[in-house]
Amino acid sequence: MILFYFLFYAETILAQQPPQPEDVNVPGTNFLDHNSPISSYFGQEFLKENIPFIDIPDANIQEIYYYRWSTLAGHLRYITPGTGYILTEFLQPVGYAEAYNTIDAAAGHQIDEARWLRGSFYAGDYIQVYTRGPGNTTQYTNWITDAAYRRAQVNGDVEFLTSQLDGFLRMWDEWDFVFDEDAGLYYYTPLYDAQEYSLPDYVDAAETNDTAIQFQGPDTYRPSHNAYMVGNARAVSETAKLAGQNSVAANFTNLADALETAMYEHLWNPDQQFFVDVIRPDNPNLTQLQGREEVGLFPFRFGIGLEDKYCTSPSEELFDPQGFYTTYAPATLEVRNEYYSATKPNSYCCYWNGQSWPFSTAHVLKSLASMYRSNNCSLVAEKYYQYLSIYATTQHKDGAPYVAESHYPDIDEWSGDSFNHSEHYDHSTNNDDVITGLLGLVPRLDDVLQFSPIIPSNWTYFALENITLARPRNFSSVTLGIYSDVARGGAIDCPEAIEIYGSSNRLLARLDPFDTCVPNELNTISFNTTVESDFLSVTMYKKENLFVGICELQVWVPPDRTSGIYYAVDAVLTGAEVIFNSTGSRATPNGAVVGSFQVGSKVLFSGVYDAGISTKAKEIVVNAMDGDTVLSLPPTDGLFTTVSLQVDLLPGSNFVAVMMESGYDAVELEYLLVV
Ligand SMILES: *[C@@H]1O[C@H](CO)[C@@H](O)[C@H](O)[C@H]1NC(C)=O
Ligand SMILES: *[C@@H]1O[C@H](CO)[C@@H](O)[C@H](O)[C@H]1NC(C)=O
Ligand SMILES: *[C@@H]1O[C@H](CO)[C@@H](O)[C@H](O)[C@H]1NC(C)=O
Ligand SMILES: *[C@@H]1O[C@H](CO)[C@@H](O)[C@H](O)[C@H]1NC(C)=O
Ligand SMILES: *[C@@H]1O[C@H](CO)[C@@H](O)[C@H](O)[C@H]1NC(C)=O
Ligand SMILES: *[C@@H]1O[C@H](CO)[C@@H](O)[C@H](O)[C@H]1NC(C)=O
Ligand SMILES: *[C@@H]1O[C@H](CO)[C@@H](O)[C@H](O)[C@H]1NC(C)=O
Ligand SMILES: *[C@@H]1O[C@H](CO)[C@@H](O)[C@H](O)[C@H]1NC(C)=O
Ligand SMILES: *[C@@H]1O[C@H](CO)[C@@H](O)[C@H](O)[C@H]1NC(C)=O
Ligand SMILES: *[C@@H]1O[C@H](CO)[C@@H](O)[C@H](O)[C@H]1NC(C)=O
Ligand SMILES: *[C@@H]1O[C@H](CO)[C@@H](O)[C@H](O)[C@H]1NC(C)=O
């Protein structure tokens, strides 16, 4: 047993129901129909609790609006107590995803969209996976800090925002390795700007047609990546100002200004009247690429270039059929370019030399809104609406709402759309563009935005299965996803009656008949009282001639922040195989323990609450900040022993990772105690 002592700030939070928006009991208005617009979509209870409802005289945009909220619901994943929710890019896990199946590339879009959910913890949890947790923020270029700041403009939570400042600063520094001091710009390959097969790649491979070069591309100074970093720097600056850290704020304003200036100097091409790419290798004069790419339109959404001399010509290119204006516009490369392709050479998903990508369209919609609101750029409102309409039309397949990876620019078909993989791809925004773009709700930090809320206080509840819990837990409800297909002629439906038992066959709830059951939804069954149990049994009685189907069973328990104990058995484990050996363990009354770490193993405790002062540790990484204190784990001759150290924790929820490095190949870890 290895015991870590930290200073502990006690706080009791009960969360035995599934988390709900904090303001779920505030009665709102019900002018609009909150049922039929979402009646054919997944996650209706979630949608009713969380989304703003709209009613606009454009059925196309309105239909896609509700569809996209439903797909977002499908991408939310509850990870562990303490970590909470993340958003995935793909519904099925992909091999190249990082911790918890996260991918940082479109996290900015995902946060931009999720900031409108009434449950603020969805985006808040997800942000912290990057600012404090194991999310990898240099896998791909990203604007997570910028999005986190703009999310605070919606929910007004300045306290949360400023509490993330340390993480923002770390994330900023992480990009130093690709900052070119001479050019004053960042560079990265187009592949890790999330855009393989881009123009620089084809130009670099011009003499060879080498597909490996066309795939990854050369290190390139791009308008996209550098604009993201300007946005991030300004967000750090604003956050630091709110935190009273004025010299940090001043430094980041300077960093943002310098980077923006370098973009005008090196990436703005006066002849093409566009922000363009500059390939880095063997290019000491920073010669600019010939050819306009959609990434050249990204800077405007970050407030860059909103003057006539920069924005008028790019906005015109969006409506030029030789520019970006295709049937399913915008294309990712201008049509007149020699490397533009309206098709693909093979079945590989991702070509960024012409295909229409929702990822990029979402950036462009925001740029159009910024251009319009700047009163420069010669843009009329209809132009914005035109693009939003095309985007809604694009998001269909066989006549039904649909979004995949990329769409042919002129053919009515998705080009990046593989089975069991691309469906309902979450790599863009749509609803943020309807709300802040089309409907014009521009959030500010000193405003509170309120939408017509519905309060589904009557979640019905039910379940069927035997659970043995890892250790005794206090809980007061069980939530079941109940399947039914009788409406379309199947034989599976809600059960007739349901009983839930705890330890010693104690009856916790009985619903007979179970007439509150809502099929194909989460049904929560509350008990009369909170029970402590390591056993749970759900018995369901089927209706005559029908069967019962359960998709999901949830047991929500309150985090125990009074004892400050975080059990390894509840932590997230990564790395090498973990062998359980509970002999002699005292971790939990029923002996649950995490045992025998190998080299490379990691135990991640999340949601650690504290406000402490201390030294750092090498094998202890807190909130993904570099640790430098060596944690000594001496041989214990097969006995359990405790080790303590002091570590800095931030106010609020912390991530504490215990890393196993060489020399510690047989460590059993029971828990972390914060005192
Ligand atoms: C993040 O991803 C990049 C690219 O895959 C990788 O080189 C790097 O090691 C990762 N960083 C962390 C902290 O996992
Ligand atoms: C590269 O591909 C282009 C287009 O297919 C072709 O015109 C050109 O001849 C090829 N070049 C080489 C060196 O193979
Ligand atoms: C601000 O930048 C200056 C100059 O690089 C540096 O000396 C100073 O430490 C920075 N201040 C803060 C608070 O980061
Ligand atoms: C860079 O510019 C200088 C000065 O104009 C010129 O002499 C040199 O040939 C250029 N180098 C390259 C690689 O184009
Ligand atoms: C619009 O252009 C004017 C004149 O160049 C400039 O002063 C102003 O800041 C621009 N507006 C925005 C939002 O950048
Ligand atoms: C979809 O992918 C998941 C994850 O790889 C796999 O478990 C599942 O069997 C696949 N489903 C189908 C229908 O292929
Ligand atoms: C729960 O919702 C259903 C369906 O909208 C409604 O019929 C029922 O009256 C509601 N029950 C309560 C207690 O509000
Ligand atoms: C389910 O619970 C019953 C007690 O209610 C027990 O006898 C049985 O072994 C359990 N089955 C499983 C698979 O846990
Ligand atoms: C359950 O709650 C009771 C009363 O608050 C407490 O004494 C007990 O320690 C809790 N048990 C667990 C496992 O948290
Ligand atoms: C819960 O309370 C209700 C009302 O007091 C009672 O009728 C019911 O039997 C109780 N259920 C259980 C499982 O104790
Ligand atoms: C489990 O640990 C005990 C005590 O250290 C040891 O005697 C036993 O051999 C271990 N069992 C396994 C399967 O490793």
From TrEMBL:
This protein's UniProt keywords: Glycosidase, Hydrolase, Signal
Signal peptide: 1-15
GO terms (BP aspect): carbohydrate metabolic process
One Pfam family linked to the record: MGH1-like_GH
Residue span, Mannosylglycerate hydrolase MGH1-like glycoside hydrolase domain: 100-428
InterPro entries, per the entry: 6-hairpin_glycosidase_sf, 6hp_glycosidase-like_sf, MGH1-like_GH
Membrane-spanning intervals of the chain: none
GO molecular function ontology, one term from the record: hydrolase activity, acting on glycosyl bonds
Protein name: Six-hairpin glycosidase-like protein
